[in-house]
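Please produce the structure of this protein holding S-adenosylmethionine.
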Amino acid sequence: MSDALPPLREVIAEHALGADKRFGQNYLLDLNLTAKIARLCGDMAEATVFEVGPGPGGLTRALLSEGAGAVVAIEKDRRFIPALDQIAAAYPGRLHAVEADALTVDEPALRPDGLRMVASNLPYNVGTALLIKWLEAEPVWWSRLVLMFQKEVAERIVARPGQDAYGRLGILVAARAKARYAFTVPARAFTPPPKVDSAVVVLEPLPETERFDDLSALKTVTESAFGQRRKTLRRSMAAAAGQTKASAEELLTGCGIDPGARAETVGPAGFMALARAWRAAR
Ligand code: SAM
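Below is the modeled complex.
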């Protein structure tokens, strides 16, 4: 890292930034790792990168030194703001630290135009909720999401039919974005180390014409189908079908899905068709 800022361990000691479990605080202090994550953003020169949970600023500094045009860092724990202000002073005009809850922040209102991305070592307790928030955003304002999750969640995000991790989350992602698993980060890379390994995934939005627009219906049918994943779809889909004029059997056969199949064998396109049929039958 080419910045003249003090080492992160000094920053943490100076500002008394001991990790607080309630906020899912596990710091990345390895500069090779933070640079590797930042580089997954690609060319950031013209971009604003939203970073959720900058904490003491390891990834923030990597994003800036790897060339992000601007970083908007959204941090819920105000203890970090003075350390972030120090980084902002070292990169004049490029870092804007916002004390806020990322779940309720309206990112496009903060930066209405231009190329926008998200890069984050996500707090594990709100990671999935944040991903869903960004997937649901309409119009889609982000060109790329570079996100660290618990490894098991990352596997669910990229899972394909037939794999153990395949389910609702992978289907909701596939409806809106292309996702790839970038790399695994062992628990020991964090301070303090969490109980499980993590992994970084990279998401890019599907072209507008390929994006599925009724995520609410897709959530309902996948919740029903995977709520009882060992049952056949004929039975597990009964709850969602109960909200329509059609039976589960009718909804499924109308989409060319075998009612005797199990949810984990049906691909995302099948569930999108089912969501459309469910909506039409209401
Ligand atoms: N980016 C730092 C790093 O990689 O070392 C810290 C990552 S730590 C896993 C998660 C960070 O998210 C913490 O700084 C925590 O305070 C912050 N955080 C937790 N919940 C948040 C929320 N709802 N909105 C914004 N920040 C949040």
